[in-house]
Amino acid sequence: MSVLTSEPGTASRDEDPPDSGDKHRLTVVTGLAALSLDAMASVAYGPEAIVLVLAAAGGYGLGFTLPVTLAIAALLAVLVASYRQVIAAFPDGGGSYAVAKTHLGRRTSLVAAASLVLDYVLNVAVAVTAGVAALTSAFPSLYGERLWICLAVLVLITAINLRGIVDSARAFIVPTAVFVLSMLTLIAVGLFRSAPVSTEAAQGHASVVADNATTVGALLLLKAFASGCSALTGVEAIANAVPSFRAPRARRAKDAEIALGAVLGVMLIGLAVLISRFHLQPVEGVTVLAQLADASLGHNAAFYVIQFATMILLALSANTSFGGLPVLLKLLARDNFLPHVFALKADRQVHRHGVLTLAAISAALLVFSGGDTNTLVPLFAIGVFVGFTIAQTGMVLHWRRERSPKWRGKALLNGLGAVLTGVSAVVVTATKFHEGAWLIVIALPLLVAAFETVHRAYARIGERLGLGRVPECPHRDRSLVIVPVSSLSRLTSEALTAAVSLGDEVRAVTVCHPDPEDRAQVEALERDWALWGPGVDLVRVPAERRTLGRPIAAYVRAIEEARPGTRVTVLIPEVEPARAWQRILQNQRGAVVAHAVRRDTDAAICRLRFRLS
């Protein structure tokens, strides 16, 4: 059991030397490809979320699209600046969890961790379903198979991530570059248009703009702001996964964070300007981004390139979760809030158990939703707002305690961000509560309770093991090795040789059942044993029932009670077949005995493998 704890980083951590695993870690470019797809893809639904809310106030309301987007871009700048500071202060990763753990206490840090876990899991399901929805929109005949397509995409992304985060990043560089270049081209060309070059994509589709609305209330603007903040999901992923970057890790992660903020901000503002310039109105069945591509580039090959690039990036944006969540689970496991298996790494710097767990839960969500995006979207983004708010609040306390140069300005910036994201979290939860957000309200405390339960279990284990205390010096006890046997063979000889090498005393035991055939076999074994003369006593253990493990466990327990100062070891000889398929030919007697002894006694179990070549 690990008792390691994560400490806040220092400036010296920013110059970590390279290690042998750096080839499996991220650069700035691959970091953007691996950890920013969620944020990049959000431009496909963030501006649309703003427009759909403002459409309730008619054409007059749509005129506020650019101001609302500018407010979101300002919040984006605040978040990027804040998470750059988080990266510098906490280079071991963890984002809002690490900040809250240091400055806001354990319970708040667990709320932050739970919110991030929920957000990451939902991001996978939403990203995959949104990408497949774009595919089925282009090819309606695939609509009935969307669940199987979603699961196939999830399997593909999982398989890529099991090869390592660098391999997944390299695989996604091209789609990310194509998408970003497509968006920038769309914006650049659109800025030179005085009017839409085409409106073919929206023809024949009903408008969702309200009629005769001429006023825009503060609540509507607040709701539009909160809905548009869905474009900010994924901004925290880089701060959560700092250990995945090459040395110097903190510096590369900060560069990746500012690059993400710059590209995302340009795309959001550029799209909002085009929405206002073209007086775009949302319609049923056609995305705002599709209308913008139609208006800027025309209904031609460029239009379809943007649609396919958007579809692919939406599906692949699930990779942000595969890059960030396993690192967060590792930190939780290291702090004894999750099973320690989540802290293990494979050869290619992969937290395999975290990747597989994320894939399994996401698959369950996909099956639950039937591959339908609208079922999952109301649950999305609440968790990330909670994490944003906690991280910003924690950084305010960080600056107050550190009191570095210009700390008041930094604390004011983080405080403003905490207020804005906190308000957004409340508004989104309230407006989406009846659409499924109540599940998140219930899931958050349940997840925190699960973390606490695991932590208490590890605390009890640590207390029993005396972790943190100096143990008594080791001493030698008399040892007794028990070897279950059923016949004479080379395996028996190897087992007894190992046993006499391990213990002061060795006993071979054989179980005798009451039926005549078994008694005859045991009597024959005893005669052969006497002729062989191995120098080890053979003990007959009677059993009334046709069982193997329990009689041996009862014999071991009786020895433990009769000889309390003796260390008892049960050495179980087993054959290791030359080929894997031959394992089905084994009788599994060793496993049965090991299970019974482990369950009913305190004896040590040693399983001797005799390899057949």
How would you describe the overall organization of this protein?
- The chain is α/β, with parallel strands linked by helices and 613 residues long.
- It has two domains: 420 residues, Amino acid/polyamine transporter I (Up-down Bundle), CATH 1.20.1740; 133 residues, 3-Layer(aba) Sandwich (Rossmann fold).
- Helix content is 62%, strand content 7%.
- It is built from 24 helices and five strands.
- Strands 3-2-1-4-5 form a five-stranded parallel beta sheet, with helices on both faces.
- α7 packs across α8, α9 crosses α13 and α10 crosses α19.
- It is elongated.
- The two termini are 37 Å apart.
- The N terminus is likely disordered.
- InterPro entries: AA/rel_permease1 (IPR002293), APC_K+_Transporter (IPR053153).
- It is a multi-pass membrane protein.
- One of its GO terms (cellular component) is membrane.
